[in-house]
Amino acid sequence: MTQDLLDRRARLMGPNVPTFYETPVHIVRGQGVRLWDADGKAYIDCYNNVPHVGHCHPRVVAAIAQQSAELNTHTRYLHDGVLTYIERLTARLGHGLSQAIMVCTGSEANDIALRMAQAVTGKTGIIATDNTYHGNTTATSVLSTRRPPIGGYPPHVRLVPAPESLGTDGATPMQKAQDFANHVARAIAELETSGFGFSGLMLCPYFANEGFPVQSPGFLDPTVALVRAAGGLLLADEVQPGFGRMGTHFWGHEWLGFAPDVVTVGKPMANGYPVAAVLARPDVMAAFRGAFGYFNTFGGNPVAAAAALATLDVIDDEGLMENARVVGDYMQQRLSALRHPLLVDTRGHGFFMGAEFVQSDGKTPATDFTIAVVEAMVARGVLLNRIGRHGNTLKMRPPMPFAREDADIVVDALIDALAHTPIMKSA
Amino acid sequence: MTQDLLDRRARLMGPNVPTFYETPVHIVRGQGVRLWDADGKAYIDCYNNVPHVGHCHPRVVAAIAQQSAELNTHTRYLHDGVLTYIERLTARLGHGLSQAIMVCTGSEANDIALRMAQAVTGKTGIIATDNTYHGNTTATSVLSTRRPPIGGYPPHVRLVPAPESLGTDGATPMQKAQDFANHVARAIAELETSGFGFSGLMLCPYFANEGFPVQSPGFLDPTVALVRAAGGLLLADEVQPGFGRMGTHFWGHEWLGFAPDVVTVGKPMANGYPVAAVLARPDVMAAFRGAFGYFNTFGGNPVAAAAALATLDVIDDEGLMENARVVGDYMQQRLSALRHPLLVDTRGHGFFMGAEFVQSDGKTPATDFTIAVVEAMVARGVLLNRIGRHGNTLKMRPPMPFAREDADIVVDALIDALAHTPIMKSA
Questions:
Q1: Percentage of residues in chain B having pLDDT higher than 70
Q2: Are A211 and A132 in contact (CB under 8 A)?
Q3: Beta bridge mates, B355
Q4: What is the pLDDT of residues A273-331, one digit of tens each?
Q5: How close B218 comes to chain A (CA, Å)?
Q6: CATH topology of domain B2-53+319-420
Q7: What pairs with residue B262 in β-bridges?
Q8: Is B14 in contact with A146 (Cβ distance < 8 A)?
Q9: A214 and A132 Cβ atoms separated by less than 8 Å
Q10: CATH of B58-317, one of 3.40.50.300, 3.40.50.12160, 3.40.640.10, 2.60.40.2250
C-alpha cells in the first residue's frame, strides 16, 4: 500500500516532493494529539502545529461545516464574520497593530509584509537570516538559501548569519545580541550603498527554523534600535511561535520583547483550514493599500473566518496557552534530565522544544544520529522531526492539547530510542 | 447595519479595500444560484465563479465536513485523497499534462508557473497582456498594470497590447491574430536583447480580464508558433475559463485550440474551499522540482482534495458543462436580441457573457452608463459586474447550475434596467 502510494506520488506529483521519514507514514485518521495510519497503528503527534487545538477538533469542524452550508463568498460583499475575527485577533496585539489583511497562506502573508515595508519606506532592500524560511512565493523564497533562484540571488536581499545556540565560545547573551546587530548594521549599510535602500528586517521572533538558538528575551534590542534608526520596518513572522505556543506569551515578539511594525500569522490560525493574515498599524496598512492594489479571493471568506474564530475560542476556553506553559515546562524538565554521550543541549519554550546532538568531538553536528533517532521514534509511535542548520536538533512542537501523560510517553520513548540507536562513526 | 459594517471594515481592514457596488451588499446566505442579504432580499447570482457548482452545494459541504472530522494534515504524509484527485483532474487534460502541484490560490499557482518557465529555459523574461490579472503575489502582480510597483516595473516583464473586441477597423480574425503575434515577437526580441531572455507567455485562454475580446479559436496559432520557435513556454491561466465554464470545452485552451506547457487552476476548483493547482508535463515538473524547493502546507491537504473531488463529481453527475453550453447559448441569443442606443456588442461562450456599451459617437466607452446599469441590476436583485479595459462591458459569469429560467430573469431585468437607466451626457 505504501509503495503503491509512493509510486502514484512519483507519477502524479513528480520528483523531489518532500515526505517525512525514511519510510513515509500513511496517516488516515486524527483526533486530538493522536494520529492513526492505514494499518491501525497509533502515533502521538509531537510535531504538527497546524492542528493547533488538536486534530479534527469538533468545535472547529462544526464551525467549518455549518458556515460551509450557510454561505461562502468573499470580502467584496460585506460579512460580519471576518470583521469579528479581526476584532478578536487584533485585541491580542499591542503596538497599535489594529488592522489586518486576510489571506490563505503564511507565504502570501509574508509576501505582503515585504511589500508593506516597501510601501512605507519607498525602498526595496530586505534583510533576513541565512538559515530561515518565510514562504514559497517567488518573493519570499529568495529569503531562503536552499537553492539559488534562476538568474541568481536578487541583490535587494541581504542574509545575515543566523544566531547559533552552540559554539559561540561562551559569549554572553549581550555579546550574542550585539554580534547579530553588527551583522544587521553591515547589511543595512550595504543595501544603502547599493541603491536599493533598507526597507526592513523579517524574522521569526523565536528563530524557529534556525533551531531556536535564542533563549534570551532582549536579544533583539540592539538590532531593533538599529533598524529604527535606519527607518526600516520590523516584520515579525509569527507563523510558528504565535497563538499561544510559547506558553508564557501569546506571541513570539511579546516573549522576545520588541514592538513589530507588521505581524504575519498562518499555519495554526484555523486548525488546518487554509487561512493566514497580515496584521499592521493603520499607517502601515494605509501605505500598502495606497501603493498596491490587493484582493484575495479566498482570504477571509466566511468559512475561513468561522474556522479561525472557533480556533481562537478553543485556545481560550480550553486554557491551551497555559497548558503549553505547564506541560511544556514539565517536558523540558524531563528532557533536561536526559543523559546521552551525544546530547549536548535541550532547550525550548512552551510547546516548542529541541534536543541537540553533536559527535564525540563535542562540536561536529551528529546529523546522521539525529536522523536515526527520529526514525526510531516513529517506529515507537511518536512523530517528531529535525531542525537547525545541520538538522541535528530534534524538533518537538505538538498540538496544544498535549498532556503531561503525552509528554511522559514521548520522553520515555526518547529514552528508549536513545538507548537503542547505535552511535555511528559518522554520527 | 450596512453602515456599521462599512465603518468596521474601514477601522479593521484599512482604506482601499475593494467592495462591489455603490451600496455594498451584505450577503448572509447562499444556495444554488441564489444569495440573500441581511434584510431577506434575494439575489440571483450572475457573477460568482467560485461557487462553481452552486452556493453551498450539499455534496461539497458534506465532503468538507466529513473529511474535516476525519483527518486534515499535509502532503508530507502519504494520503490517497490528493493522488486520486490529481489522477481524476489530469485525466481531463491532454498534451501530456499529467502531473500537479497542489496549492491554495490561483496566485500561488501562477507564481509557480512563472518559475516553471524559468526552470525549463534558464531565463526569466516573461510576457503577458497589458490588461490582465494573474494574481496578487509580488511576482504575479507585476503582470498587472494597475499601479507601478515600488522600485518600478521590473525589466524582465513585457506587456503586449491586449486584443480588442471593437475599434479594430474591420480587421479579419486572421489579421487580429497576426497583429497580436507581432507584438509578442517584438517583446521576445526585446527580452532576448535585454539579457533576460524569453521564458514564456502567460495568458488566460479566454482573455477574461481583457473583456473576452477574442471569439475565434485559432487566434493564438501564429503566436504559439513564435513562442515555440523562441523556446518559451505557454502558460495557460485557466482560473476563469476552466472546469467546463466554456460549455463546449472543459478548458479554455481546448476551445482556443492550443497545447499549453503549463495549466493553472484555482477559484472554481473546490467550490470555495481554498485550493488551486499547477498542472504540467513531467519534463516541466522535473525541471521545476530540480531548480526550486517547494512545499505548500495547506495545498492538497485531505480536506482540499475531498472538496475538489466532490466538485468534479458534481460537475459530471449534474451535467453542468452541458448546462453551460445549452443555457449559455440560450442566454446569449436573448442578449443578442437586445436593442439599446449604447449597446454595441453582446458576446460570450458558455457561462461567460458580456454586453458592451459605448457612447452615441459609436466609439467612446460608456463606462458611467455601464456602472449605472450594474447598480440598476443589483436593485432588481441581479448580481453581475463590469470588465474590460474601460469597464464598459457587463460581465455575466454565473454559477454552473444556472437554469434557463434564471437566464430569463436576468435578461428581463436587464431589459427593464436599460429602459430605466438615463443616458448621461458623459455616459
A1: 99
A2: no
A3: B346, B394
A4: 999 999 999 999 999 999 999 999 999 999 999 999 999 999 999 999 999 999 999 99
A5: 30
A6: Aspartate Aminotransferase, domain 1 (3.90.1150)
A7: B235, B280
A8: no
A9: no
A10: 3.40.640.10
